[in-house]
Write a structure and sequence with these properties.
Helix content: 40-55%
Strand content: 15-25%
Distance between the termini: 86 Å
Structural class: alpha+beta
Largest sheet: 9 strands, mixed
Strand order of the largest sheet: 2-6-7-10-1-11-12-13-14
Bound molecules: adenosine-5'-diphosphate, magnesium ion, zinc ion
Shape: elongated
Length: 482
């Protein structure tokens, strides 16, 4: 029975570190420069050029390890992983195979069944390869990416569904962004996931896994996992065997297809990198880095639920992007009701951003907070709020002055509202008679009249209260004998 199969998933994530220069040379580490302009003899793999380890790379890798609860090996070493590919001019990659920098960490994710911990096996440092672009008649090589510093974060096979896989990656990405390790822009290849998947029946040993490479959106991770699970279970049900191999996910067909048989580590002829000495850190260096860790997403999420009154869901969304969490923190400090502000931010603001194709908010946190305050205090209604927000997207300005200038405030003054009620009742004697005769539903019509007289400006709650007060008073006068 196909339902009895369970999926077992472990993820290897490659993250480009936000350093000024490359891992082993002084070339600039920058995205989007004209091809082959940030290169030198070392990162072009010319013979005789010697690598020098980038301190900032080590610093960020240690920081990542600490943010992910790993233990840091004070002594680690680089190795050569030998293989030929056109994007790898040296024909080997410098990586940490035998003695990685970090081991034994964890990431906690929220699942429908509660919290779940995904183990981190290890984190090691390595260098990126160049970038190949395949055209119709030619393939082009950009070596700007050769030697860009990476960490590879290897998870335990603790993940058991597509949703858990994407929750793990989202959390991992948020932690790395908060800690300033990497901007983790998936469309720029800063954060890339390889998904290993096997299936088995509970109580049996793990099955043979396949690896799906370079999935660069959460959605394709989830889709690739579903497709590969279907493929493996169908194969096994039909009496076939899963072959250990590297597969690629095709966005268009939604299927995975074989790329190459998976190499064993022996194929790479790993050996210690002779040009780089052991990396030796002191306990004090590591502790200094630990102290420099900023507030991380889980801490912040708890702060948002406990002190700002956000739901778990809203708080979870708010800490998925660093800029968003920073924005909310700044705005919430001026908001009377931070939870209402969060709704405005996650709802209407994101809708407008999507509509206009923006990836940042064009409104300052202070202005959004005062707009939220105008709404929660009842000085404007929600449709006016939306109108003002759209205006702030056009031009970031003070919503209070904007509302004043365009006469958008609701009428909340009790005396003015009472006068409005008087006037309405005078104008509609028939409706008043019906009300006094027991037909309470005419209140709606009276409210409509009053609203019309105020040109939609009357604050509805107060207006209704005063209207009913007046009507009830008249009813009593009518019924009480003179
Ligand atoms: P390699 O270096 O050959 O890719 P690793 O042993 O480093 O192999 O494992 C890579 C990833 O595969 C890890 O994230 C690990 O959790 C995962 N993994 C290992 N065995 C299985 C399995 N049977 N099913 C699914 N994932 C697995
Ligand atoms: Mg691997
Ligand atoms: Zn270089």
């Amino acid at each position: 029975m196909a339902e009895q199969w369970q999926m077992v998933i472990g993820i290897e994530t490659h993250v480009e570190l936000d350093t000024r220069t490359k891992a082993f040379c002084a070339c600039e580490n920058s995205y989007g420069a004209p091809p082959n302009t940030h290169v030198c003899p070392l990162c072009m793999g010319l013979p005789g050029a010697l690598p020098v380890l980038n301190r900032q790379m080590v610093h960020l890798a240690v920081k990542a390890g600490l943010a992910l609860d790993c233990s840091i090996n004070l002594e680690s070493r680089f190795d050569r992983k030998n293989y030929f590919y056109p994007d790898l001019p040296k024909a080997y990659q410098i990586t940490q195979f035998y003695h990685p920098l970090c081991e034994g960490g964890q990431v906690t994710i929220q699942t429908p069944g509660g919290e779940k911990t995904i183990g981190i096996t290890r984190i090691h440092m390595e260098e990126d390869a160049g970038k190949l672009s395949h055209g119709e008649n030619a393939s082009l090589l950009d070596m700007n990416r050769c030697g860009v510093p990476l960490i590879e974060i290897v998870s335990e096979p603790d993940i058991s569904s597509p949703e858990e896989a994407s929750a793990y990656l989202r959390k991992l990405r948020a932690i790395l962004m908060f800690a300033g390790i990497s901007p983790c822009r998936m469309n720029q290849g800063n954060f890339r996931a390889d998904v290993n998947l096997s299936v088995h029946k509970p109580g049996n040993p793990f099955g043979v896994r396949t690896e799906m490479k370079n999935l660069n959106s959460f959605q394709s991770v989830e889709r690739a996992i579903k497709a590969e699970f279907e493929r493996q279970t169908a194969l096994l049900e039909a009496g076939g065997e899963v072959v250990q191999e590297t597969r690629r996910f095709d966005q268009k067909t939604g299927q995975t297809f074989s790329m190459r048989k998976k190499e064993d580590s022996a194929d790479y002829r790993y050996f210690p990198e002779p040009d780089i000495p052991w990396l030796v850190l002191s306990g004090k260096e590591v502790e200094d880095i630990r102290r420099s860790l900023p507030v991380l997403p889980d801490q912040l999420r708890r702060r948002f639920t406990e002190t700002c009154g956000l739901t778990d869901y809203a708080a979870g969304l708010m800490v998925e992007e660093k800029w968003l969490a920073d924005y909310f923190t700044a705005a919430a400090s001026c908001a009377h009701e931070p939870a209402a502000l969060a709704n405005l931010l996650l709802g209407e603001c994101f809708a407008l951003m999507n509509q206009q194709g923006l990836d940042q908010l064009p409104v300052s946190p202070g202005h959004l907070a005062s707009l939220s305050n105008l709404m929660t205090s009842g000085r404007i209604n929600s449709s006016t709020g939306k109108k003002i927000l759209a205006a702030l997207f056009e031009e970031d300005q003070d919503p209070v002055s904007y509302a004043e200038k365009h006469d958008l405030f609701l009428l909340t003054d009790e005396a003015a509202l009472s006068a409005l009620v008087e006037k309405t009742l005078l104008q509609c004697p028939d409706l008043v008679e019906s009300y006094l005769g027991g037909k309470l539903t005419v209140e709606k019509a009276l409210m409509g009249r009053a609203m019309g007289l105020s040109r939609g400006k009357a604050e509805p709650e107060a207006l209704r209260r005063l209207m009913i007060d007046q009507l009830e008073k008249r009813k009593q006068q009518k019924n009480s004998p003179m």
